[in-house]
Design goal:
329 residues; alpha/beta; Rossmann fold; 2 domains; six-stranded mixed β-sheet; 10 strands; globular
Length: 329
Amino acid sequence: MTTLSASEIGLVTLDDLESAARGLEGVVVRTPLLAFDAISERIGVPTYVKPEMLQRGGAFKFRGAFTYLSRLSDEERLKGVIAPSSGNHAQAVALAAKLFGVPATVVMPTTVTPAKRQGAERLGARIVLAGTTTSDRFEKALELARTEGGTLVPPYDDPAIIAGQGTLGLEIAADAPHVGTVVVQVGGGGLSAGVATAIKLRAPSARVVAVEPAGAPKLTRARAAGHPVRLAKTKSIADGLMAVEVGKLPFAHHERYIDEVVTVDDSALVPAMRLLLDRMKLVTEPSGAITIAALMEGLVRPTDARPVVAVLSGGNIEWDGLQELLARA
Protein backbone atom coordinates (compact mmCIF):
# COMPACT_ATOMS: atom_id res chain seq x y z
CA MET A 1 0.00 0.00 0.00
CA THR A 2 1.40 3.41 -1.01
CA THR A 3 1.29 6.23 1.56
CA LEU A 4 0.68 9.60 -0.05
CA SER A 5 2.84 12.54 0.96
CA ALA A 6 1.33 15.69 2.44
CA SER A 7 1.81 17.60 -0.81
CA GLU A 8 0.13 14.83 -2.80
CA ILE A 9 -3.06 15.13 -0.74
CA GLY A 10 -2.99 18.92 -0.68
CA LEU A 11 -1.70 19.50 2.84
CA VAL A 12 0.62 22.34 3.77
CA THR A 13 4.24 21.16 3.69
CA LEU A 14 7.37 22.21 5.56
CA ASP A 15 8.46 24.12 2.44
CA ASP A 16 5.15 26.01 2.52
CA LEU A 17 5.64 26.90 6.18
CA GLU A 18 9.22 28.03 5.68
CA SER A 19 8.21 30.10 2.63
CA ALA A 20 5.54 31.83 4.71
CA ALA A 21 8.07 32.48 7.47
CA ARG A 22 10.47 34.12 5.02
CA GLY A 23 7.67 36.32 3.74
CA LEU A 24 6.86 37.45 7.27
CA GLU A 25 10.42 38.34 8.27
CA GLY A 26 10.54 41.93 9.47
CA VAL A 27 6.73 42.16 9.31
CA VAL A 28 5.39 40.11 12.22
CA VAL A 29 6.49 40.17 15.83
CA ARG A 30 8.45 37.03 16.67
CA THR A 31 6.70 36.52 19.98
CA PRO A 32 8.81 34.93 22.74
CA LEU A 33 8.21 31.87 24.85
CA LEU A 34 7.64 33.02 28.43
CA ALA A 35 8.00 30.71 31.42
CA PHE A 36 4.72 30.43 33.34
CA ASP A 37 5.82 29.28 36.80
CA ALA A 38 2.29 29.22 38.23
CA ILE A 39 1.32 26.45 35.79
CA SER A 40 4.71 24.70 35.98
CA GLU A 41 4.12 24.29 39.71
CA ARG A 42 0.64 22.84 39.11
CA ILE A 43 1.53 20.26 36.47
CA GLY A 44 5.10 19.42 37.47
CA VAL A 45 6.95 20.24 34.25
CA PRO A 46 8.33 23.49 32.78
CA THR A 47 5.49 25.36 31.09
CA TYR A 48 5.75 28.23 28.65
CA VAL A 49 3.25 30.48 26.90
CA LYS A 50 3.43 31.85 23.36
CA PRO A 51 1.85 35.33 23.84
CA GLU A 52 0.27 36.26 20.52
CA MET A 53 -1.58 39.16 22.13
CA LEU A 54 1.79 40.88 21.58
CA GLN A 55 1.43 40.31 17.83
CA ARG A 56 0.51 43.17 15.52
CA GLY A 57 -3.27 43.46 15.56
CA GLY A 58 -3.37 41.85 19.00
CA ALA A 59 -3.67 38.24 17.79
CA PHE A 60 -2.03 35.50 15.72
CA LYS A 61 -4.32 36.23 12.76
CA PHE A 62 -1.98 38.82 11.23
CA ARG A 63 0.42 36.02 10.23
CA GLY A 64 -2.10 34.38 7.91
CA ALA A 65 -3.69 37.58 6.63
CA PHE A 66 -0.41 39.13 5.54
CA THR A 67 0.71 35.85 3.95
CA TYR A 68 -2.54 35.66 1.96
CA LEU A 69 -2.42 39.27 0.76
CA SER A 70 1.25 38.97 -0.16
CA ARG A 71 0.34 36.27 -2.68
CA LEU A 72 -2.35 38.28 -4.47
CA SER A 73 -1.51 40.00 -7.73
CA ASP A 74 -1.33 43.79 -7.88
CA GLU A 75 -4.57 43.77 -9.89
CA GLU A 76 -6.36 41.67 -7.26
CA ARG A 77 -5.19 43.95 -4.47
CA LEU A 78 -6.36 47.07 -6.27
CA LYS A 79 -9.91 45.73 -6.25
CA GLY A 80 -9.79 45.54 -2.47
CA VAL A 81 -10.22 42.68 -0.01
CA ILE A 82 -13.20 41.42 1.99
CA ALA A 83 -12.95 39.42 5.21
CA PRO A 84 -15.67 37.64 7.22
CA SER A 85 -14.65 37.62 10.88
CA SER A 86 -15.80 37.67 14.49
CA GLY A 87 -13.05 40.20 15.11
CA ASN A 88 -9.41 39.13 15.08
CA HIS A 89 -9.26 38.12 11.41
CA ALA A 90 -10.97 41.41 10.56
CA GLN A 91 -8.31 43.44 12.33
CA ALA A 92 -5.54 41.35 10.80
CA VAL A 93 -6.86 41.80 7.26
CA ALA A 94 -7.43 45.52 7.88
CA LEU A 95 -3.82 45.90 9.03
CA ALA A 96 -2.40 43.85 6.17
CA ALA A 97 -4.50 45.83 3.67
CA LYS A 98 -3.27 49.09 5.18
CA LEU A 99 0.34 47.97 4.79
CA PHE A 100 -0.29 47.05 1.15
CA GLY A 101 -2.25 50.27 0.57
CA VAL A 102 -5.48 48.58 -0.51
CA PRO A 103 -9.10 49.04 0.66
CA ALA A 104 -10.57 46.50 3.07
CA THR A 105 -14.15 45.60 4.01
CA VAL A 106 -14.76 43.36 7.01
CA VAL A 107 -18.01 41.52 7.72
CA MET A 108 -18.53 41.17 11.45
CA PRO A 109 -21.35 39.76 13.62
CA THR A 110 -23.98 42.05 15.04
CA THR A 111 -22.68 40.91 18.45
CA VAL A 112 -19.07 41.95 17.78
CA THR A 113 -17.27 43.33 20.83
CA PRO A 114 -16.49 47.06 20.80
CA ALA A 115 -12.74 46.36 21.03
CA LYS A 116 -12.73 44.25 17.89
CA ARG A 117 -14.97 46.56 15.87
CA GLN A 118 -13.03 49.66 16.90
CA GLY A 119 -9.76 47.92 16.15
CA ALA A 120 -10.79 47.24 12.55
CA GLU A 121 -12.18 50.76 12.14
CA ARG A 122 -8.98 52.28 13.50
CA LEU A 123 -7.05 50.45 10.81
CA GLY A 124 -9.25 51.95 8.07
CA ALA A 125 -11.58 49.05 7.29
CA ARG A 126 -15.20 49.50 6.25
CA ILE A 127 -17.45 47.59 8.65
CA VAL A 128 -20.47 45.57 7.51
CA LEU A 129 -22.54 43.71 10.13
CA ALA A 130 -24.25 40.42 9.28
CA GLY A 131 -26.00 37.98 11.62
CA THR A 132 -24.33 36.13 14.47
CA THR A 133 -22.90 32.95 12.92
CA THR A 134 -19.85 32.12 10.82
CA SER A 135 -22.08 31.20 7.89
CA ASP A 136 -23.96 34.54 8.12
CA ARG A 137 -20.68 36.43 7.79
CA PHE A 138 -19.30 34.21 5.06
CA GLU A 139 -22.41 34.43 2.91
CA LYS A 140 -22.47 38.23 3.20
CA ALA A 141 -18.78 38.41 2.32
CA LEU A 142 -19.37 36.25 -0.76
CA GLU A 143 -22.24 38.52 -1.80
CA LEU A 144 -20.02 41.61 -1.46
CA ALA A 145 -17.25 39.92 -3.42
CA ARG A 146 -19.69 39.18 -6.24
CA THR A 147 -21.28 42.63 -6.33
CA GLU A 148 -18.21 44.76 -5.62
CA GLY A 149 -15.43 42.69 -7.13
CA GLY A 150 -13.13 42.44 -4.12
CA THR A 151 -11.09 39.38 -3.16
CA LEU A 152 -12.42 37.36 -0.24
CA VAL A 153 -9.77 36.57 2.38
CA PRO A 154 -10.84 33.31 4.05
CA PRO A 155 -10.39 33.17 7.82
CA TYR A 156 -9.03 29.61 8.02
CA ASP A 157 -9.89 27.23 5.16
CA ASP A 158 -6.98 28.06 2.86
CA PRO A 159 -3.38 26.82 2.48
CA ALA A 160 -1.82 30.31 2.60
CA ILE A 161 -3.73 31.13 5.79
CA ILE A 162 -2.74 27.81 7.39
CA ALA A 163 0.91 28.27 6.38
CA GLY A 164 0.97 31.81 7.78
CA GLN A 165 -0.53 30.74 11.11
CA GLY A 166 1.83 27.76 11.15
CA THR A 167 4.86 30.05 11.37
CA LEU A 168 3.93 30.37 15.04
CA GLY A 169 4.56 26.62 15.35
CA LEU A 170 7.93 26.90 13.62
CA GLU A 171 8.94 29.48 16.23
CA ILE A 172 7.87 27.19 19.08
CA ALA A 173 9.88 24.30 17.64
CA ALA A 174 12.94 26.52 17.21
CA ASP A 175 12.75 28.02 20.71
CA ALA A 176 11.80 24.76 22.49
CA PRO A 177 13.29 21.94 20.40
CA HIS A 178 12.64 19.40 23.18
CA VAL A 179 8.99 20.38 23.69
CA GLY A 180 6.80 17.52 24.88
CA THR A 181 3.27 18.93 24.50
CA VAL A 182 1.88 21.89 22.58
CA VAL A 183 -1.61 23.09 23.50
CA VAL A 184 -3.45 25.16 20.90
CA GLN A 185 -6.99 26.51 20.55
CA VAL A 186 -9.27 25.57 17.67
CA GLY A 187 -11.96 27.74 16.10
CA GLY A 188 -12.32 27.27 12.36
CA GLY A 189 -9.05 25.37 12.45
CA GLY A 190 -6.45 27.48 10.65
CA LEU A 191 -4.27 28.10 13.70
CA SER A 192 -4.50 24.59 15.08
CA ALA A 193 -3.85 23.08 11.64
CA GLY A 194 -0.81 25.27 11.00
CA VAL A 195 0.70 24.87 14.46
CA ALA A 196 0.15 21.10 14.54
CA THR A 197 1.71 20.72 11.10
CA ALA A 198 4.76 22.79 12.03
CA ILE A 199 5.27 20.96 15.32
CA LYS A 200 4.93 17.49 13.87
CA LEU A 201 7.30 18.28 10.99
CA ARG A 202 9.89 20.01 13.18
CA ALA A 203 9.48 18.21 16.54
CA PRO A 204 7.76 14.95 15.57
CA SER A 205 7.93 13.36 19.04
CA ALA A 206 5.89 16.20 20.58
CA ARG A 207 2.19 15.75 21.33
CA VAL A 208 -0.29 18.34 20.00
CA VAL A 209 -3.55 18.87 21.90
CA ALA A 210 -6.33 21.05 20.47
CA VAL A 211 -8.69 22.85 22.86
CA GLU A 212 -12.18 24.16 22.07
CA PRO A 213 -15.12 25.52 24.10
CA ALA A 214 -17.62 22.98 25.39
CA GLY A 215 -20.31 25.15 23.79
CA ALA A 216 -18.68 24.93 20.33
CA PRO A 217 -17.24 21.41 19.97
CA LYS A 218 -16.92 21.46 16.19
CA LEU A 219 -13.64 19.50 16.02
CA THR A 220 -14.74 16.97 18.64
CA ARG A 221 -17.85 16.25 16.60
CA ALA A 222 -15.91 16.17 13.33
CA ARG A 223 -13.41 13.64 14.62
CA ALA A 224 -16.21 11.42 15.89
CA ALA A 225 -17.94 11.58 12.48
CA GLY A 226 -14.78 11.38 10.36
CA HIS A 227 -15.63 14.60 8.54
CA PRO A 228 -16.52 18.24 9.34
CA VAL A 229 -19.93 18.56 11.00
CA ARG A 230 -21.99 21.76 11.11
CA LEU A 231 -23.23 22.52 14.62
CA ALA A 232 -26.82 23.71 14.99
CA LYS A 233 -25.67 26.42 17.39
CA THR A 234 -22.69 27.51 19.45
CA LYS A 235 -22.50 29.37 22.75
CA SER A 236 -19.41 30.55 24.59
CA ILE A 237 -17.70 33.66 25.94
CA ALA A 238 -14.76 32.58 23.75
CA ASP A 239 -16.18 34.47 20.77
CA GLY A 240 -13.12 33.82 18.60
CA LEU A 241 -13.66 30.06 18.76
CA MET A 242 -17.35 29.86 17.90
CA ALA A 243 -17.16 28.63 14.31
CA VAL A 244 -20.07 26.27 13.66
CA GLU A 245 -17.91 23.98 11.52
CA VAL A 246 -14.19 23.28 11.24
CA GLY A 247 -12.78 23.94 7.75
CA LYS A 248 -12.28 21.02 5.38
CA LEU A 249 -8.59 21.69 4.76
CA PRO A 250 -7.81 22.33 8.44
CA PHE A 251 -9.64 19.11 9.34
CA ALA A 252 -7.40 17.12 6.99
CA HIS A 253 -4.38 18.54 8.83
CA HIS A 254 -6.01 17.79 12.19
CA GLU A 255 -6.54 14.17 11.23
CA ARG A 256 -2.88 13.75 10.35
CA TYR A 257 -1.18 15.87 13.00
CA ILE A 258 -3.35 16.45 16.11
CA ASP A 259 -3.14 13.82 18.84
CA GLU A 260 -6.06 14.79 21.05
CA VAL A 261 -8.95 17.25 21.38
CA VAL A 262 -10.42 18.45 24.68
CA THR A 263 -13.29 20.79 25.49
CA VAL A 264 -13.35 23.42 28.24
CA ASP A 265 -16.36 24.87 30.05
CA ASP A 266 -16.79 28.64 30.04
CA SER A 267 -16.57 28.64 33.84
CA ALA A 268 -12.84 27.82 33.58
CA LEU A 269 -11.96 30.65 31.18
CA VAL A 270 -12.18 33.65 33.49
CA PRO A 271 -9.98 32.13 36.22
CA ALA A 272 -7.39 31.43 33.51
CA MET A 273 -7.58 35.04 32.31
CA ARG A 274 -7.20 36.20 35.90
CA LEU A 275 -4.17 33.99 36.52
CA LEU A 276 -2.48 35.27 33.36
CA LEU A 277 -3.15 38.84 34.41
CA ASP A 278 -2.11 38.38 38.04
CA ARG A 279 0.99 36.23 37.52
CA MET A 280 2.18 37.09 33.99
CA LYS A 281 0.76 40.61 33.52
CA LEU A 282 -0.70 39.42 30.21
CA VAL A 283 -4.17 40.49 29.07
CA THR A 284 -5.93 37.72 27.16
CA GLU A 285 -9.37 37.41 25.68
CA PRO A 286 -11.29 34.24 26.65
CA SER A 287 -10.29 32.50 23.41
CA GLY A 288 -6.65 33.21 24.17
CA ALA A 289 -6.80 31.87 27.72
CA ILE A 290 -8.58 28.60 26.90
CA THR A 291 -5.31 26.64 26.65
CA ILE A 292 -4.34 27.72 30.17
CA ALA A 293 -7.83 26.82 31.38
CA ALA A 294 -7.34 23.31 29.98
CA LEU A 295 -4.09 22.96 31.94
CA MET A 296 -5.60 24.40 35.13
CA GLU A 297 -8.53 21.98 34.90
CA GLY A 298 -6.28 18.97 34.40
CA LEU A 299 -7.75 18.28 30.97
CA VAL A 300 -4.27 18.29 29.44
CA ARG A 301 -1.54 16.51 31.39
CA PRO A 302 2.12 16.09 30.45
CA THR A 303 3.10 12.56 29.48
CA ASP A 304 6.76 12.98 30.42
CA ALA A 305 9.16 15.54 31.91
CA ARG A 306 9.54 17.56 28.71
CA PRO A 307 8.21 21.15 28.57
CA VAL A 308 4.64 22.15 27.75
CA VAL A 309 3.90 25.16 25.53
CA ALA A 310 0.46 26.80 25.54
CA VAL A 311 -0.52 29.17 22.75
CA LEU A 312 -2.21 32.39 23.87
CA SER A 313 -3.94 33.29 20.62
CA GLY A 314 -4.91 36.91 21.33
CA GLY A 315 -5.84 39.70 23.69
CA ASN A 316 -8.45 41.78 21.91
CA ILE A 317 -10.79 42.67 24.74
CA GLU A 318 -11.85 46.17 25.78
CA TRP A 319 -11.35 47.49 29.32
CA ASP A 320 -15.05 47.41 30.27
CA GLY A 321 -15.44 43.87 29.01
CA LEU A 322 -12.32 42.76 30.84
CA GLN A 323 -13.49 44.30 34.09
CA GLU A 324 -16.90 42.66 33.75
CA LEU A 325 -15.42 39.21 33.16
CA LEU A 326 -12.81 39.46 35.89
CA ALA A 327 -15.50 40.49 38.37
CA ARG A 328 -16.92 36.98 37.94
CA ALA A 329 -13.68 35.52 39.29
